[in-house]
Amino acid sequence: MTIKRIGVMTGGGDCPGLNPVIRAVVLAARARGWEVMGIEDATHGLVNLDYRSPRGNRLLDVGDVDDILQTGGTILGTSNKSDPWNFVVEKEGVKTTIDVSATAVENYHKLGLDALISIGGDGSMKIAQKFCDLGCKIVGVPKTIDQDVAATDTTFGFMTAVQCATDALDRLHDTAESHDRVMLLEVMGRDAGHIALHAAMAGDAHICLLPEIPYRIAPLVEKIKTRKANGKPYSIVVVAEGAHPHDGEASIEKKLGEMPKLFGAAQRLAVALEPHLDLDVRATILGHLQRGGSPVQFDRILGTRYGVGAVEAVEEGKFGQMVSLRNHQITTVSIKEAIEKQRLVDPQGQLVHAARSVGICFGDE
Amino acid sequence: MTIKRIGVMTGGGDCPGLNPVIRAVVLAARARGWEVMGIEDATHGLVNLDYRSPRGNRLLDVGDVDDILQTGGTILGTSNKSDPWNFVVEKEGVKTTIDVSATAVENYHKLGLDALISIGGDGSMKIAQKFCDLGCKIVGVPKTIDQDVAATDTTFGFMTAVQCATDALDRLHDTAESHDRVMLLEVMGRDAGHIALHAAMAGDAHICLLPEIPYRIAPLVEKIKTRKANGKPYSIVVVAEGAHPHDGEASIEKKLGEMPKLFGAAQRLAVALEPHLDLDVRATILGHLQRGGSPVQFDRILGTRYGVGAVEAVEEGKFGQMVSLRNHQITTVSIKEAIEKQRLVDPQGQLVHAARSVGICFGDE
Amino acid sequence: MTIKRIGVMTGGGDCPGLNPVIRAVVLAARARGWEVMGIEDATHGLVNLDYRSPRGNRLLDVGDVDDILQTGGTILGTSNKSDPWNFVVEKEGVKTTIDVSATAVENYHKLGLDALISIGGDGSMKIAQKFCDLGCKIVGVPKTIDQDVAATDTTFGFMTAVQCATDALDRLHDTAESHDRVMLLEVMGRDAGHIALHAAMAGDAHICLLPEIPYRIAPLVEKIKTRKANGKPYSIVVVAEGAHPHDGEASIEKKLGEMPKLFGAAQRLAVALEPHLDLDVRATILGHLQRGGSPVQFDRILGTRYGVGAVEAVEEGKFGQMVSLRNHQITTVSIKEAIEKQRLVDPQGQLVHAARSVGICFGDE
Amino acid sequence: MTIKRIGVMTGGGDCPGLNPVIRAVVLAARARGWEVMGIEDATHGLVNLDYRSPRGNRLLDVGDVDDILQTGGTILGTSNKSDPWNFVVEKEGVKTTIDVSATAVENYHKLGLDALISIGGDGSMKIAQKFCDLGCKIVGVPKTIDQDVAATDTTFGFMTAVQCATDALDRLHDTAESHDRVMLLEVMGRDAGHIALHAAMAGDAHICLLPEIPYRIAPLVEKIKTRKANGKPYSIVVVAEGAHPHDGEASIEKKLGEMPKLFGAAQRLAVALEPHLDLDVRATILGHLQRGGSPVQFDRILGTRYGVGAVEAVEEGKFGQMVSLRNHQITTVSIKEAIEKQRLVDPQGQLVHAARSVGICFGDE
């Protein structure tokens, strides 16, 4: 088939490396003489062709992607509330969800797209698969700052987020040592603790709490007290968003449960820990700082490779496929297969083992 | 008088630049043949000569301050709970405060100190003055990350903290623009909003809320809505810890008052703002990240100049004086005078005026 | 008088902070309802209205200065070969200079400018003064990365350049210590050594060579050898571009003179030093890296204040004046006065004295 | 066998990540109750047990590796002039090389080493193999900032060096665009161009010259001129140290040959390019800046994993083996095999292909 025009859109939470993908898609597609239609704010621009927030869909040329390689965010905007099969509409103050997928598919054709490159996470890939089933020609590009997509060795944004968390830990070391404090840093990772594990290893943390390894209070207290007894009256703790106490720790669970819901994992743990220690405990939440910032070199290159790979997949008619990095080479996997399996931290794996070998405590023993 | 041995200690919250001061004190004093006794954890080492957390008082030589110029924190440790006139002691779980100043003065002499350089903030300077009144020979070095000591043009740590907040704002821009969000960043500044004001100007914030300028909700909402109407459906708001609504905003005040006390200024404002907007509002608290980190070049140099200046003040017998930067030159002022006057942001001053001129909204009009 | 349209241009070498000035000029002027004409590549756009490299003169609106606060360089382009009184033209391969000032003045009027804000260094200010003398209404903004304009306390770009050099010194420390080497870092500063002096103090250099303090080889060798004897078999040397040996060192001068002209101060010194030492000597030239990069917060704020100040000076009819920072306040001085006096490092000043006090050797004793 | 004491040493050029390896070796070995003897300055400490520069061999305990995870350089010192089989000695000003390998082996036993972990590059591994052949028990850890050891997927230091070069390119973009210049950046890579290729892709370079792809002048000139014709009157060129013109370019080769030998690849190319262009051409040499600096998070983690892996290899008696990263898992390969094959950039490989797809010119077509 002959490609004349492709679309490109970004979905889900933003993540450093999206702009490098968009740039590479535009450069590689324009070099083939294709037109590239940028879709605004994930599927919002597809559901509603008049959508403007702020700019709406537009053709992208080489000049539009100049100077975006080194930038965070996405020039196309993104959204995590735009599933066409469960589209939120508000009428007289009441929110309901409706199915606007038929309109989205119609608009795909109205826009004259021969194919659509969808950059996004798990949710976006599920939507992409549904579009494929309705005859749209989709190539996926995986995006997950948490690195929890098993179908690819790694994803862009992850290295930048770990670097951001590592830099924060370097800073917390100074003040923890000066004030004899226990410093908790909460990082992203609701289901998968990869960012927390890597940041703890790179940032010289003494304790690391992951969703995959439920913790007990006693080993944490012992680790901190042993450090103090050895002339280190301070400790650094990395806490993944999704870290939680072991089932056996029912009383803690209850105590944590009584705290305001807006409190995250680190703030709750701080409250639980402090009575057991004669050291101040302080929580810092890294939050959205992890999503922004100029991508580190690795993420710029990986984004570029993904973008080039996606254009080549379109050229070769590999629709319903997602680009993927396997053993340092770009390849493709079926989107269907890709959305089936999440990558979690393996508590028995080599990385956790290495972390334990340099003394990091996971609160499980 | 002949100086044979001086002491040096750091008090109050830590702040990038303390180690450069300590280093310069040691280098300049050793070059004069003086001994330098480092006092551990502010006055803790003075109140109790057996204090070890982790190391206790110790003589510092040139080799001990190698490689600390570029480090955050303080190699001497610090504390903001060590006022000898209100010293906290715990007996059978009950905390009381007692006056141990006589012991501290006795220990000053036991340590053989001919003078003591006390690096610290407002609280530390008040204590320093009391020690002077009891015959100890003290030279002060001002430390306030908030830059709120009027007796010196600026202090170390401030530039590093503003840079840290500016870097955070650069990151938040990416994600705010990608997601059409209102991003609130809470920075230090309980009484004085200098960090917030500088960070807002350097980090391209659209709204800046300071302790010195009580805000109203209406102008904030209008600013954000106007931006959205002009094709900018996102806004960045810098909130000083001590920012608070105008007295007239009683209903907001009440609503904020109902929120958990652990919520800071930014989280409370987020809750208050969101009902007025059709944009997501997210709060990030920079917290202790602002205190750590390698000092920027300016703070390394200023710390060095303060340290050299303090040693020269000791040499010249200027006790009861504090070093100070005035019009780019190091000079001294009396500690008595220095603790009298706080520097606040001047709402009519040139800096606020310049900020308004580039469109920053302070919520007051 | 009523202002309808102003021009703005940047001249001389680029420097971090130019874009913040341009942004503030545009925001403050547009808020007054004025039009702002950006002139391309210094006076090139004024000499030739058809000049396009790459874009040519253009009206700047608020949207054009979005997202430039944090960027290095200048969106208007710049040049240091565009003096209208000595304008270089090439005819059949032969370069000659002609006087095109009359054309430039004519174009100033053709563009409908009521005033022109000229951002630039010494050379640009001299040209600005000549334009004033011919009836153009000019307000100057000082730009010198070397901080060598005496008429203002400091200039934007300087802090960013010193930070860049300090970061480089932090890096060189690692490799110098690992390999027992003498590492020379050449930084900007042909006439004025401010960058070198500040970087040496912030970057823990052991030797600092400035244009203002001619050096001798013997004290350098002694410093390096004494360090080695004291268990520090490595040294870090900061060399300003314009550093040169003392007149008495005739033989060295001669030896240096025989080296290729393209060799800078650091490479030449490396060749001269190595025979005297049993350590490897390596030179690194920071070069253009010092001019680029995102401006540090201070330079973003100072640029903003200058831009606002320049617009206010136009409003108040202060033509022939240059904005200036005096004791932390923006004010104005006459351009005539400003171009008369260069600020050099004072060898007897407080900063050199503090540097000596922490052991930095200037090669003069 | 029972291990009681192991040695550890670092050889060859320094590289960010060495300290993380040393730290992990010490932590993992001490946890097993082993002693760890740090050998100073590569084999210098082995050849001469009285060697002190500055400290000499010493037992390393947990406290000695505190706070070194985030540091560049190596606390053990290193050297690339210490091959015991060709050991340089100086007698009355004359340098000769002698074989001191027997002494080194004797000292290995005198130090009571049960095994020795040798961290180093190609040269160090060849020496390690020779020690193995003489009965010493060696485990190797690969170190090459150039990533040119084929026996492991990647090595620490490489990511930090590429990030350093990328940051430099980001800076050069600013000044190149402002001044309409061609900016050349010379990066490390005498035989293998991995750093240059990655930096060019991450740093938005327009031209990339590698040792593996000889260049011609004509395509470079055309690329730069086409960019100018398209409104981009500036270009960024990354030049690996070992980049060289194509054999056919004999006249250029000759012209380059006439330049001083101290001129590197970039300076020579600048001289060759300038006559063909009407743009200024400037060269920057990144040099030793690439070797220093705090390791990025990836290199800290990889170093830690290598260190733990090396201790485990010792425990398992895998002598004559080198740790290696294969498909994200730490494993071992025989040192013999490892030193046989260098990894070069594959001109037909996926990465060069992706770089071409986004418009990077390699000067070969």
CATH topology term of the largest domain in chain A: Rossmann fold
Q: In percent, how much strand structure appears in the residues of chain A?
A: 15-25%
What strand line-up does the widest sheet of chain A have? Answer: 3-2-1-6-7-12-13
Q: Please, what is the average pLDDT of chain A?
A: 94
Poorly predicted tracts of residues of chain A: none
How many DSSP E strands of chain A? 13
Give the class of chain A from helix and strand content and strand pairing.
Answer: alpha/beta
CATH architecture of the largest domain in chain A: 3-Layer(aba) Sandwich
Summarize the structure.
Four copies of one chain form a homotetramer. With 365 residues, chain A is of the alpha/beta class.
